[in-house]
Amino acid sequence: MKRVLTQSGSAEKRSSAPQQPEQAPGPRAPESGGAESRSPARTAPSTAGPLTKKAPEQKIKPSPAPEAQKKAVPVGPEAEVVRSEPATVGFEQQRSGQPLHPEMVTRMVLRELGEIPVTIESAAHLFAMLKRNLLLRKAALLLPDPEESMFVPWSITGFDITTQRRLHIPEETAYTLFSNRVPLMLLFEGDEMRPLEPYFSVREFSALKRLVFCSFFYEARLLAILVIADTPFFGLDPTILQVMYSAFEEGISSLLFRSREERIARIQLPLLFAFDQLSPMAHEALNQAGKGDASILFMEVDPEPAVVRILERTRETDRYRVRQDVLRILNTLLAGLGKVFTLPRHRLLLMRTELDGDTGQLDVDLLSHQLNERLKRFFSELTDGDDAVTCRVVEYPTDSADLEELTASFS
User: Is this prediction's pTM over 0.85?
Assistant: First the structure.
C-alpha cells in the first residue's frame, strides 16, 4: 500500500495541498510490456496502473487515525524538537544492535547536512551521509540527466549490476509519480510495487518487501529521487519515516539546488563533434584557409586524473556520471577556442585552425593550467596538488605532414 507525505511546513500549508481522489486499485501488473518483452534498461512502466491510481490516503496497516497522522508530522514548534533536543545514544550503538532512535538520527542528518561541501558532486557526499545515518543497505540517489531526459543513479549501494542499469526513470514518469510537484514520500508494498518491476532485476525485485521514493523539489522542479529498498528503519512505524523525511527534505533540496542544479543551468553546452568527423573537418579547414602553409593545432585533453580523484573521495558515485560532469565542463571551457571533438577512451580534442585565430598565439601550457584550476572550482574534491587533466599537443604540419595519419593517431 502507498502512503504520501507533503512538504514539511505549517499545518495550514500541508492541509491545503491538493489530494487525489480515492479510486479503486488498478491491475496487479503493468498494463504495457510483460517481463519477457521489456527492454532491460529503458522500458518505463505504464502510468495508467496502480502506480498513479492509488489514493494517497490508503495507508499501510495498521493505519493511524487522521488526527494521529497530523500530530506525527513535525510542524511549527514540534519540528524544533527534532532539531534541538540533545542526542542521548550514539550512532555506533545503533550499529551494534541497540534500538533505533529516529530523533537522534534526524538531528545527525540535519547537522551533517550543513557540513557537506557545496560542489557539483555534493549529491555524492549527501548520499554517503544518508547511507551512514539511515543505515541504507539498498538505496540509490537518482538525478536528472538532461541528455537522456531520465532520472538515473548518481550514487547507489547494495543493488546488483542489472538493477543499476535498469533504474532509469523517464522524466515524464517521475513527474507523474509526484504529480502535485510538491515534496512527497511514496511508500509501496505488495502489488503496489508491481509497476516498478521493470526498473529492477528479477532477483532484486523478488526480494523486495517495501520501497520508498523520496522526492526533492525546488520551485516545482524535481531535483532528485531517493530510492530506498532496505534499511532497519523499515521495521518501525512508517509514520516515523515520514516525520524524518519532513524534517530534512527542505535542507536537502536547498543543497542540491545550490550545489548542482544552479551551476549546471549556467553551463551552456556547446556543440560537440564526433571523432569520425575529425578528419573531414580538418581537411575542410585547410581548404578554407586557402594556402599551403596553413597550420592546425590539436590539443588532446584527458580528464581521467580528475575522475579518479573525485571517485576516491566520493566512493558511492557512478564513474560514468562523474566523467560526464567533468567532460561537460571541459567542453564548455574549450569551445570558445576552436572545435571540440569526443575521442575514444573518454577524451576530448580541441582543433584550432587559423579560422579560429593565430594557432601560434595559443599558450597551451597556460591553457592546461587554467583547465586544472577551473575544474577545481567546480569540484572541491580536487585539491591544489592534484593534476585534474593531462594534455598532449600536436601541430600540423610541424609535427606531421600527413594530416590523415595525424588525425588517426588520436583514436
Answer: no
